[in-house]
Automatic annotation (TrEMBL), chains A, B:
Domain Acetyl-CoA hydrolase/transferase N-terminal: 15-225
Domain Acetyl-CoA hydrolase/transferase C-terminal: 326-472
Coiled coil (residue ranges): none
Pfam families in alphabetical order: AcetylCoA_hyd_C, AcetylCoA_hydro
PANTHER family according to UniProt: ACETYL-COA HYDROLASE
Name of the protein in its database record: Acetyl-CoA hydrolase
Length: 512, 512
C-alpha cells in the first residue's frame, strides 16, 4: 500500500509486511491469542477473518479441530468475534463479548466463556492466572522508527498483550488518522506485588505515561496493512424510556448538589454504553452544569457533544465508540479533541484505586434488579449469558455514587425488570445505591432491605407488576412470621424464581 | 478513680468526668450514635449498658419509645449490642453485628440493619449518605494534655465518629495498658473527592499517620472512667475440619510458590476471624515460610504466635481479638509487639487502593457457595441474617488471591454448604478464585461456569451431597438442551432453591 513508508517507519518491521492470510497462518491450534479491541473500536480488521477462513478450511478437510483462546479488551465486531465463532474456532473467550454468534455458541455449550471484571484481566495475565498468552494481534495507527507504536481508537489490554505474548502480529490501519498521535496515555509504572506503587493520577485529564505502546520488535512475526473502519453504529435518538430515565437521574443529581452532597461541577462521570447513557449526557449537556469531567471506559457521541459545547472540560476513557456522524465530527476536529480526551489502558481506566480516589458518579445499565437491590447485569432468566459484567463492577463498587438503570419492563411488557429475586447476581445489595427506571428513581442509601423493597416497588416497578411484587413481599413476610424464614430479607423460596420460570415456559412473566 | 490524673491529662476534659448514668442521659431518642468497637475489642464498656437501663426505665414508664441508631466499627459485645437490643433500644444498626440478641431482633423484623462493606462506612458518613451522626461514644486508653487520645485495642471508625459527631462521650478504660501508646497509626490525609490523594502506604508495616486520635475538646460532653476487659473468647484448638481446610490451603500456597505465582515469603495475609483462620496461621507457623506479613482487619492468637516465632515480621490490623492467653502474652511483651503490630482506622485497613496495591492473600469464611462459585457470607436459607459481609468484600475483590472456606456440611450433615444456587449472593462468580472445604480445594481461576461446577462438586462437596449436586447439574444441562435455558450457567429454576426450602420445612437438605 502506498502509505507503508510513512506509517511503518521501523525498517525491521517493514521487512515483516505480509498478507493477512500469511499472518493468520502463524497462529496455531491451542494458542491463546490476545486481540486488541474495546467496544467495537481498535480491533484487528483482517487477520481474525483470515484465521477464520483458515480454520474453516482445516475443519472441512477433516483434520483435528482448530480452536484458540480469544482474549480482548472488551467487545469487538462481527469480523472478529462473529467470524471466529461462526467457524467454531473459539475454545475459550474472555473477558467480555456482545456478539450474537458468540452468545449463541456460549449458551449452546459449544464455547467456554469467562466473564471477568475488566480491571482484573491484565493483572491476572501478569500473575499467570489465565495461562500463557501465545500471540498478540494488535491494531495500530503507525510504527515509529524506534519501533514504538501509535495506538488507534482503543487501548484496552494492548499493553499487556504486547508485553506478554511470545509472537506479535501488528495490523497497521490506514483508516485511522495519524493525528491520533498524542491522544493516548500509556502508563508503564505497574508492577507485581509486593513492588506496586500508587498510581499517580489525581484528575481525569492527568497524563501519567507515554503516548505510545512498546513492543520488542524481535517478537513481531508479521505486520499487515489494512484500511478499514471501526464498527460504527448509527446514533439513534433516545426513546421515551431513556429520556425519562435521564430526566430522573438529572433531577437526582441536581438534588444532591442542593443538599451539598455533590459539588456544583459534579464529580467525574462514568457511563455505560447505549442509548440511555447518551440520553443522560444529552440531558446534562442541556443542564446548568459546567466544568464537567468524565472518567469512563467508553466515550460515546453524548460526551463528544459535551466536550464540543464546553460543558465538559476533559474526558478519560479506554475506547471511543462513535456513530458515523460522531466519527466525522471527531476526525474533523482532532486537534480540539486531542486536548480534551485521554485514552488509557483499561487497567487504569477501570482501576479501583483511581475510581475510588476520583469519586466517580457511576451510571450503568442492567438486565434486572430485585426488590432488595441486587442487580443482574449479565444473564437472561438466570442461565443465558447476554454480554458480560464489563467494567460495571469496577465502577459501581468504588464509585462515589453507584446508579443502575433499565426500563421497568422488556419484551413489550412480558418481562419485568424488577423481580422478586435476581436470577443472577453481579452487583450485590452492598454495591447498589440508586436504581432508576422510566417509572422513577429509588435512592437506597441508608435503607435496610425491606425499606429498599418497598421503595423500589413504589418508584421503579412497572404498574403492571407493582401489585404482584407487593403481594410477593407481603407473603414473604408472612412466611417468615410463620416461622419458616427471617424478616431481614424475606422470600417465598419456592416462588423466588417463579417469574423467570414462567417466562421460560409461557413467554410472559405475568400470571396467565 | 485513682488513675484519673495520669490517664486524663487535659484539665478541661478532667472537668467533664461523670458517671456512666450521667453520660448516658446525654443521649437522646432518635440520635445516631457512633460507638467504638471492632470484633469485641475497644468498645465502650459502661455507657451503652447505662443507656440500656435508661431506655428500659423510660419504656417501662410508658413514655414514647426510646430508640437510637447504633453505628460501630464492626461487632461489639453483649454489654453493648446485647444490652441495647434486649431493651429494644436500637432502631437501625450498621455496618456489622454478630450478637445473638441483635440477630434475633433483626430477623424478627423488630430492628433495621444495613450490612455495609467495612471500607465504605466512614466515607458514606463523610459524604452525608447515612444522615447526621449525633453522638460518638469512644473508648480510649488515655487523654494527653493537649486533648489527643490514645486509642485502645481497636480503631475501627473512631476517627470518623470523633470528627463527625456533635457530642462526644469518652470512656477512659484503665484495663488497657498505657504502653499501647505508639502502636496505632491514624491517617489524617483523607479528603472528599475531588481532593483525594494517593494513600502513601507501600508495605504492611508502613506508618503514614499519627499515634493519636484527635477530638475537639469543646465537643466532649462527658468523660467516664472504666476498668473492664474486652470481650475475650478462650482459644479452642482447631477441630479436624479446620485442620483439613488449613492443610489444603497451605498445600495450595506451596504449589503457587513452586509455580512462581507467589514469592517465597508469600504476600501479605488477610484472614477472617475464627478457628479455621487460626488453624491456617498455625499451619503457616509450622511451615517453611519466613518474613511473612499480614494486612488484615483483625489480629488473632494465630498471628500473635507467628510474630512471636519470628515467622511473621509485621502485622497491620484495625483490631486485636485475642484469647485470655493471647492477651497475657501480648501485655507481657508489649514492647516486642509494639514494634511489629500497627493498628489503623478501618478505612485504611480495608481500603481497596491499599489492598490492591499490596496484593493480599485473602482468606475468608463463608456460609455457602454454589456450584458456579457464588458465595453467600451473610444469610441462612436466604432470609435470616447471620452476621454481615464485614470486610470480606473489600479484601476478596481487591486481593491477589481470593480464597473462601467452610466445612462442606453444617448441622451434623443436614446442611450442605455447597448448593445448586446460593440463597443470597455476597461475592459473585467474578470475585471468587478458590473454594476450600475439608474435602478439598477448587482452584477456579481460568475456568468457565460449568467447568467450575464440576470441580467444586468433585473437590469441595461432602460425599453425601455429591451425587445430588451432579444430578442437579446434569438435569440443568438437559433443561437447557431442551430449549428452556442456556448452557452458560444452567439451572433447574424451580429446584434452584429447593434444598433451602427443604431445610426450612423438614430440617434437612437431604431428600427424605
Amino acid at each position: 500500500m502506498k502509505h507503508s513508508l510513512s506509517r511503518i517507519q521501523h525498517p525491521g518491521l517493514q521487512a515483516k509486511l505480509m498478507s493477512a492470510d500469511e499472518a493468520a497462518a502463524l497462529i496455531r491450534h491451542g494458542d491463546n491469542v490476545g486481540m486488541s479491541g474495546f467496544t467495537g473500536a481498535g480491533y484487528p480488521k483482517v487477520v481474525p477473518a483470515a484465521l477464520a477462513r483458515h480454520i474453516e478450511r482445516q475443519n472441512a478437510a477433516g483434520g483435528d479441530p482448530f480452536r484458540i483462546g480469544v482474549w480482548t479488551g472488551a467487545s469487538t465486531a462481527p469480523e472478529l468475534d462473529g467470524a471466529l465463532a461462526k467457524v467454531g474456532g473459539i475454545e475459550m473467550r474472555l473477558p467480555y463479548q456482545s456478539d450474537p454468534t458468540c452468545r449463541q455458541r456460549i449458551n449452546a455449550g459449544e464455547m467456554e466463556y469467562i466473564d471477568i471484571h475488566l480491571s482484573h484481566v491484565a493483572q491476572f495475565v501478569w500473575f499467570g492466572f489465565l495461562g500463557k498468552l501465545n500471540v498478540a494481534v494488535v491494531e495500530v495507527a503507525g510504527i515509529l522508527p524506534d519501533g514504538r507504536l501509535v495506538p488507534t481508537s482503543s487501548i484496552g489490554n494492548n499493553k499487556t498483550w504486547l508485553d506478554q505474548a511470545d509472537r506479535v502480529i501488528l495490523e497497521v490501519n490506514h483508516w485511522h488518522p495519524t493525528a491520533l498521535e498524542g491522544m493516548h496515555d500509556v502508563y508503564y509504572g505497574t508492577a507485581l506485588p509486593p513492588h506496586r506503587k500508587p498510581i499517580p493520577l489525581l484528575h481525569p485529564g492527568d497524563r501519567i505515561g507515554e503516548a505510545y505502546l512498546h513492543v520488542d520488535p524481535s517478537k513481531v512475526v508479521a505486520v499487515v496493512e489494512t484500511n478499514a473502519s471501526d464498527r460504527v453504529t448509527p446514533f439513534s435518538p433516545p426513546d421515551a424510556v431513556s429520556q425519562r430515565i435521564a430526566e430522573h437521574i438529572i433531577h437526582f443529581l441536581g438534588h444532591e448538589v442542593k443538599q451539598g452532597r455533590l459539588p456544583p461541577e459534579l464529580l467525574p462521570l462514568q457511563s455505560g454504553v447505549g442509548n440511555t447513557a447518551n440520553a443522560v449526557m444529552a440531558g446534562l449537556n442541556n443542564g446548568p452544569y459546567t466544568g464537567l469531567t468524565a472518567y469512563t471506559e467508553v466515550l460515546q457521541d453524548g460526551m463528544l457533544e459535551m466536550l464540543k459545547s464546553g460543558k465538559m472540560a476533559m474526558a478519560s476513557a479506554t475506547a471511543l465508540s462513535l456513530s458515523p456522524d460522531g466519527i466525522k465530527e471527531f476526525m474533523d476536529n482532532l486537534d480540539f479533541y486531542r486536548q480534551r480526551i485521554v485514552l488509557r489502558p483499561q487497567e487504569i481506566s477501570n482501576h479501583p484505586e483511581v475510581i475510588r480516589r476520583l469519586g466517580i458518579i457511576a451510571m450503568n445499565g442492567m438486565i434486572e434488579a430485585d426488590i432488595y437491590g441486587h442487580v443482574n447485569s449479565t444473564h437472561l432468566m438466570g442461565t443465558r449469558i447476554m454480554n458480560g459484567i464489563g467494567g460495571s463492577g469496577d465502577f459501581a463498587r468504588n464509585a462515589y455514587l453507584s446508579i443502575f438503570m433499565t426500563g421497568s419492563v422488556a419484551k413489550g411488557g412480558k418481562i419485568s425488570c424488577i423481580v422478586p429475586m435476581a436470577s443472577h447476581v453481579d452487583h450485590t445489595e452492598h454495591d447498589v445505591q440508586v436504581i432508576v427506571t422510566e417509572q422513577g428513581l429509588a435512592d437506597l442509601r441508608g435503607l435496610a432491605p425491606r425499606q429498599r423493597a418497598r421503595l423500589i416497588i413504589e418508584r421503579c416497578a412497572h404498574p403492571d407488576y407493582r401489585d404482584a411484587l407487593t403481594d410477593y413481599l407481603e407473603r414473604a413476610e408472612a412466611v417468615a412470621r410463620s416461622g419458616f424464614g427471617g424478616l431481614h430479607t424475606p422470600h417465598v423460596l419456592p416462588e423466588a424464581l417463579a417469574w423467570h420460570e414462567r417466562y421460560e415456559r409461557a413467554g410472559d412473566m405475568r400470571a396467565g
